[in-house]
Design brief:
Haemolymph_juvenile_hormone-bd, To_sf, 254 residues, alpha+beta, Bactericidal permeability-increasing protein, domain 1, 7 helices, signal, 6 strands
Length: 254
């Protein structure tokens, strides 16, 4: 879940950063890139452009309906574990921190700029939420609700590939970029999860917390597949909404 939000930061940054023609003086720090430059130059420019968005991501851009990502807030997220960890984990009042401390390692585009590849490093991501759980966690069944949960994802590396093609809208004869496929590969050094057990303490929760601490690398491995699928699906929806709203001549001028 957390990496999904982080990926949205980077993806939305890339799009908005090119969009200075429409935002005017609202985003004076943005760096824009030319579509006619070489793929190598565009990749370098996009890296600078995304980094120039960090200030705006911290504060948000209300008139463009972009919320603050420091912290990022969402009302609800449902996580459904697979394999030996199965059941449901419903998180509410979710707050995610350190999403704007990302480091862009690499940005690549193909010759006609129809494929964008991002390699992004997040040194540390933290989250806090309330949880409602009905699941088996590493062989221990827990049903509990109305308590806090916090987590720490360490050294997360995200490789995102966005594939699309250019289309002409009949309504205005303008050229747009349509996203066809998004793939996400994640790797995390550790995923440290802690279930709050201060109110109405339950010995089972203590046991689960100890196990989660000892198996932080296994936790990262287990949650990765669902995070990758969720991130790819939602990034595709969000990017298509943005790319298909504005002609490419505004997003990447010649």
């Amino acid at each position: 879940m957390l990496v999904f939000f982080a990926l949205l930061v980077v993806t939305n940054s890339l799009v908005v950063a090119e969009h200075t023609d429409l935002v005017g003086m609202d985003l004076p720090l943005l760096i824009r890139c030319s579509r006619q430059a070489s793929p190598k130059h565009i990749g370098i420019c996009l890296k600078q452009s995304i980094n120039s968005m960090k200030h705006y991501l911290e504060t948000g851009i209300p008139n463009m309906e972009i919320p603050s990502f420091e912290p990022y807030y969402t009302e609800r997220y449902e996580f459904i574990p697979k394999g030996e960890n199965n059941g449901t984990l419903d998180l509410t009042d979710v707050r995610v921190y350190n999403l704007t401390t990302f480091v862009i390692k690499q940005v690549e585009v193909n010759p006609n700029v129809s494929q964008i590849k991002l390699e992004v490093h997040f040194p540390s991501i933290r989250f806090f939420a309330m949880y409602d759980i009905n699941a088996t966690i590493f062989g221990m069944y827990l049903q509990r609700r109305g308590h806090g949960i916090d987590g720490h994802f360490i050294d997360t590396l995200a490789n995102v590939t966005i594939d699309g093609h250019y289309v002409i809208k009949i309504s205005n004869e303008e050229e747009y970029f349509s996203v066809r496929k998004v793939s996400v590969e994640l790797s995390m050094s550790e995923a440290k999860i802690n279930l709050d057990n201060k109110i109405n303490p339950d010995p089972l929760v203590n046991n689960i917390n100890s196990f989660l601490t000892d198996k932080s690398k296994a936790v990262a491995h287990n949650i990765r597949p669902q995070l990758q699928m969720a991130a790819a699906r939602i990034i595709r929806v969000i990017t298509n909404k943005i790319y298909m709203q504005y002609p490419i001549r505004f997003l990447m001028p010649t």
